[in-house]
Amino acid sequence: MTTRDQAHRRIVERGGDAGRQPVDALRPPTLPERLLAAREEKGVDLYRAERDTKIRARYLAALERGDWRELPGSVYTKGFLRNYALYLGLDPDDILIQWRAERGDNPPTEPVIVVPHAVAAPRQGFTFSPGMLAAALLVIGVVAFAAYLAVQLLRFAKPPSISVTDPSSAVSEVDESTTSYTLRGTSQAGASIVITTPGRDVQRVNAGPDGTWSADIDLRRGRNEFDVTATDPDTGKSADAPVHLFITVPYSVVQAPTLTVDQPADGATFENGAIPVQGRATNAKTATISATYLGPVPGGGQAGAAPNASPTIAPSATKRPRASVAPAATPRPPAAPVPQIVPVTEDGSFNAAIELTAGRWAITVTAASAQGRTTTITRSVAVSFKGVNLVLTVTDGPIWLKVWVDGKVDPGLGQTGRTVETGKTMIFSGTGTVEVRTGNSGGTRFTLNGTVLGALGKPGVAETWMFEPPNPPVRTDHQ
Questions:
Q1: Structural domain count of the chain
Q2: What's the CATH code of the domain at 396?
Q3: Is residue 53 part of a domain?
Q4: Terminus-to-terminus CA distance in the chain, angstroms?
Q5: Domain that includes residue 214, residue range
Q6: Closest CA to 216 of 236, 243, 195, 191
Q7: What are the tens digits of pLDDT across the range 453-472?
Q8: What is the mean pLDDT of the chain?
Q9: In this structure, are 215 and 184 located in the same domain?
């Protein structure tokens, strides 16, 4: 049964409601009757429907009476009918079809407003007024100023460019007799060109108004390395990346290496055994560094433990007594360190360090070329230790360590000591004594004032060792 049939049945059953004429049971209900019946079935009055649908009650009443002229217009009426039908649970399309049928084929039409065509004004030619000319000049000035600012901003934001035109390649080789070369290139006009060579002074030239520049550089035999960059003097900005150049001057096959030793100075005295050896060589591939013991330091410079003396174990006591050491036999000269062979870098420099014990030593530096030709320089030095210099290396860690320097706990390890990992090397220096408590005596290696002592105990055994040169190490009960 359709909604229309249900409304018709209710109207027939009600017959003569107050204020209305009886409805013919054979006639289908009109649109107003359907709306009224649906609202009453919903159980709401017009004011409640007004609040729910936001449609004024006077318009809802006009819809239920079929008084279409009381409504604001057909467009609004269709909207009211659709919303009211949805609210009442009716089919909005069915309601609109019935509304069009009951309204009649010729519903009152709304007046159509005819808009008159605008009268076209006669076209006039384009003319300049003084105001327009002033405005145009102002716009041109603003645009020109903006362009100037943009150029300046780009100039300050963009670093200068740098290029080298001669030599044409980054790596080049010249004749073996060449001692100088003229670099040429381009950059920004007026830029400062900076040429840097490792181990030499920095050279500066200025680019010309057309951006070209040139600079004369000195060449040494072997490979010469240069870094070329540019700096804008106004902004201070440098080129994004310097140009790297390598110019090689070949060596003569029969030419022996040249050698210069910068460190150590001849006759220098050192207070520790790490002697730096630095210098420069040309036509050389390697530099060999060796040392020869010459004798004790005149005046009795303090040395480490006697080479032939063994560690002494003191008996356990409250005040950590140390056993005296019996006079040792005349010590043998310390063993010479193993010669070191270090490469000579492309710029001719070499750098190394050699560990020496106390005494007088002759350090020999030998530069060798690829063809086997050599050049040698010898430097005499003295090693005279002051106080205690103890190098401790953990070889089988982790190991717990605690150290006292001149009777005070080392702050780096703290009052409770600290666990140190394998491979860690620590240096302790004092004026009189250094005492070490190790949780693994066999995994701890010691070097005292340049003398390698190695491990002083057995692996896994916790021991305390006192170092007080020139006496040999002594085991104590300090914990």
A1: 4
A2: 2.60.60
A3: yes
A4: 107
A5: 162-249
A6: 195
A7: 899 888 989 999 999 988 89
A8: 81
A9: yes
